[in-house]
Amino acid sequence: MFDGLHDIDWASMEHAYGSAEDVPALLWALRSPDAGERSKALDRFHGAVHHQGDVYPSTAASLPFLFELAADGVTPDRAAVVALVVSIGRESLDRGFEDDGTEIEYYPPTGCAQAVAFLRERGAEFAELARDADPDVRLAAIPGLGLFLDDTDRAAAVLRERLAAEQAVAARLRIVEAAAALALRLPAAAEQVMDWLGRLAADPAQGPVTRLAAVVQRVRCAPDEIGEDVVPTAVGLLRESAHAIPVRRIAPAPSRPAAPTPGVAPQIVAAFEDLDRRTRVYAPTTILLRSFHEALGARVPERTVVLAEQLSSPDPGSRLDAVRMSGELMRTWRGDHTRLLLLVADQLTTDDQEVAAEAAAVLETCHPIAAPAREALAAHIEAQRTAHGPHVWATPQALLRRSHQETVRALARLGDARALPSLLAALDSDADVWRAIQVAGHLPQAANELVPRLCDHLRRIDLSRQRNGMSANAILSALAVLGDPAAVAVVVDTLGAAVSMGQHNITQQALKALVGLR
């Protein structure tokens, strides 16, 4: 096992955290009978040797040994190893080559070209892995047929064979996606793949999810040939698919807010939580539909029609993913988004708190154009305060708290005074107060109530602690916008403290605030 592993000068190579001399130990740990040791090794490999998708020379050098693990039937967690191999190859293609196949030169050099060359040499082995007895191994290996197997006829034949054999939705979606990847990579395969996808899309025996996948992947292969019938066909299949896929509840979030992270500003903690939320996918068709939206591009009316159907799904996970996609469309492309804003606002009143919270968050991030949703936001806030009391901003129910706070912030950014009671409750309670401070400047009509509270918070900030800088600057910025001269004294005190402690960013923000308070 691992012949030649120690012939490689691993110490001369690096990964994300320095010397790659630990790679051999990680590879051996992936064979460990101890599940915890294997899990740690896999996490370390993803975190260091394949850090955020990076492909180093040490990453490429590990591929022969990862392949050996994948091919050995006694290797535990083979599917995870195969998925790692495919990820390294996919990222190597995306980062190491232009669309026309030209290699991108980096300094220091990456391992992208080396990785792709090796995987293309072993491309035929993905055909065997795609037939493995373990369904998880098959699922992980299927993309390799489109990305690395250069024998177009064999790749297409194996994909057709696997579609006939596989019944799971995830596998069928991945097979059709691999066919499109094959056609996009190898022009010689395009005609037969396009013909096959066309037949699949028209074949009612395939089921609506497979037919929808065929429509979308065919569009990916030829985005310039999108006809007037494509979107109506996709919407019809999407509607059928919604009833073909079982409705699943979204796993509930913790019932209480997480404890503060020592030494880390709450804004930073929240940013990482948001990033984690954005990477989650709740519905099996979401990745497929993202590809469809990417192919449709600037066709905003057509994309809105598709999103309207997604947002009407009986499955909460599908709606949650659709809410996020709606936000991405509205933030990226200009157009009349009134219909989409109202459809997202309709999700505020859903029984699923996760969906409602995400809808509120999207309306908050889209606040420059969110005026059509104003009344829905105000009604949602009033309903929450009536049902849960005036202190719902600080409720220990995590999803309800997030839903209320994001709704209040969205309405406040529209300059609507109906957000004020909850903002004042936040400023009086200190619960997630930074979220209220960020939007306080949008309500100048309430300066007489907001400014004293903001000044009180500013007085209490310990400027000797670096983590408090973001909060101090946010308060100073809000005071400058509100423009109440009553804040001058506390801003001057803050300026003096910031200068004495060498807090240059706060010093600059305090000076700007004083200009605004003249």
Characterise the protein shown here:
By secondary structure, the protein is mainly α. 66% of the residues lie in helices and 1% in strands. It contains 26 helices and two strands. It has a two-stranded antiparallel sheet with strand order 1-2. A hairpin with a 2-residue loop joins strand 1 and strand 2. Helix 3 packs parallel to helix 5 (112-121), helix 9 (169-185) runs parallel beside helix 11 (208-221) and helix 22 packs parallel to helix 24 (469-482). It is globular and about 75 Å long. The N and C termini lie far apart (76 Å). The model is unreliable at 253-258 (pLDDT under 50).
Distance N terminus to C terminus?
76 Å
Helical content stands at 55-70%
- Total helices: the number is 26
| Residues in β-strands, percent | under 5%
Radius of gyration: 27 Å
Shape: globular
What profile does the largest beta sheet have? 2 strands, antiparallel
- Spatial strand order of the main sheet: 1-2
Secondary structure category: mainly alpha
SSE string, helices as H and strands as E: EEHHHHHHHHHHHHHHHHHHHHHHHHHH
Number of strands: 2
Stretches where pLDDT falls below 50 for ≥5 residues?
A: 253-258
Mean pLDDT: 92
